[in-house]
Amino acid sequence: MSDDHVPPPQSIPEAHPGERATRRPRSLDPLELGFTPRKPVPWLAPLLLIQTGLRTLLAMLFGAYLDKRELQNAFGDGTFRQVGPDGGLWLDYVADLGDGFDATYSVAYLLAQPELEVDGHRLPRAQTLVMGGDEVYPSASYAAYEDRCKGPYQAALPVSPPERPTLFAVPGNHDWYDGLTAFLRLFVRSRDRHFAGWGTGQSRSYFAMELPADWWLLGLDDQSGSYLDDPQLTYFDEVARKLTPRSKVILAVPAPTWVKAVDHPTAYDSIDYFIRTIIAPTGAQVRLLVSGDLHHYARYTGPERQLITCGGGGAYLYPTHELPERLEVPPRDTLARRASRTREYDLAARYPDKARSRRYGWGIFARLPFRNPGFTTLLGTLHTLLMLAMAGVTANHVGTAEQRLLSVPLVIMVVVAMLGAAFFAKPPSAGGKRHARHWILGVSHGLAQVALAAAGTWLWLKLPFYDWPWPLPAAAAAVLYGPVSGLVASQLVALYLLVAGSFGVNVNELFAAQGIEDSKAFLRFRFDPDGTLTIYPIAVDEVAHAWQLNPDQSPTASWILPKTPLTPRLAEPPIVLR
């Protein structure tokens, strides 16, 4: 096919706000706002753990059947030119944003302001916004998107300002839990093409943007690292026809597979395949890979490109102190036969810094029981059942038929405790590197919980409650023993998470259990007409928790203001690429 048949770059249609956007709220009541501000997701809540596990299992078993990317071949296939009036462009990148209101809105509010002054730099509002994945938590649904994502961004930028900023989005694994149904309805539309004050224009779950001075930004959808579908590859084949050896490419991908490949050598394969087969033949250079998924800021630098993780849009903080200081990309032990040449990348910057990340880890003892009351209650229930089973065996004569009968639930409870602790340690799957430390730590944690139950049983039997007439002992155990044992057991879990985290096990759970809302980050890019790219990594040490209505009644003014002003700063000095 000749170049004459390639569709021209498409512009984004103007945003047309609805009636609610033009009517400013008179209070912070959800009926006035049009959405319900939500608290952070309690990631260790028992029902949520079960639901998340089931969704992950269903995504693994039936993901191919739910995959709607093959159907997108019937959608539009154009590229989008994004250039500002001065021939340059301001562009924002934010990822992992749809969680609790305070953190999500703090970032959205900063993104929406006409200008930010950050460490002496005056940074105007971006003309293009890229959402890098996981636009909603814990799962994709209409209500979750409205309350945790679109609603806060509507409050931050109710209607489109004169420069009419545009928005593009890459789906993450949480957006994929319903097979992209809600994501496509929100970001890929043929009518009402606006998201709050941003216009939307992408026609698929992936996109290509032509930027100033022959820069390009390509947003990929690799379904959590599984593979790139044929329609997507065909789409980017056509995009690649426009690339030249002078082109500089930015890839926005759903996950930092360059980091995950340390334990899962195949994680980077699909991205490497894309670069090797789509970009490399054109002579263009991939200068930057950017991703969310890990909820922090980190930058690796190498001889060819920068690798940036910036998932600080609103979700709980993920630690930085366990990041490897050096990466090999692609990893030498990948099974791909035609992998690119391995190159080394050094960790150049991280936010929060290593010392602060470690201090955050120690907060697990105070935060775990109170941020996750359902989990603490579950622990108390399990320990109460363990205690009653142990007490039933201990209080009966050895060798009697009654004791043998009563010992059955004890065996079951011990097995449940051991298996639960072992699987909580997440032993690596067949696709990852196997480490004995997962099993050792998991089994040790299980034994520690059983030992705690034995100590609790011994102490309970010293008290008079067990000799009361039935069912008073069970009632006393539920009222007295359960809450105390749950709190003590939660501290044992906290100790386990802190120790395991130092060995690279349950690092995510160590921080997910705390739900830390502070230390947020996003990127502001400046593409100059001469081809210089400057990246400003903007950090927010503390998010706002108290809000008020904005007295400014201007249509584009944010509805809600933080009572204490937010103070953004640079996570590191600006990064300049040419």
TrEMBL record:
Stored InterPro entries: Metallo-depent_PP-like
UniProt-annotated stretches for the region Disordered: 1-33
Taxonomic superkingdom: Bacteria
Transmembrane segments annotated in the record for this chain: 43-66, 375-393, 405-426, 438-461, 473-499
UniProt keywords, alphabetically: Membrane, Transmembrane, Transmembrane helix
Name recorded for this polypeptide: Metallophosphoesterase
Gene3D superfamilies per record: 3.60.21.10
PANTHER family: CALCINEURIN-LIKE METALLO-PHOSPHOESTERASE SUPERFAMILY PROTEIN
Basic and acidic residues compositional bias, start-end: 16-29
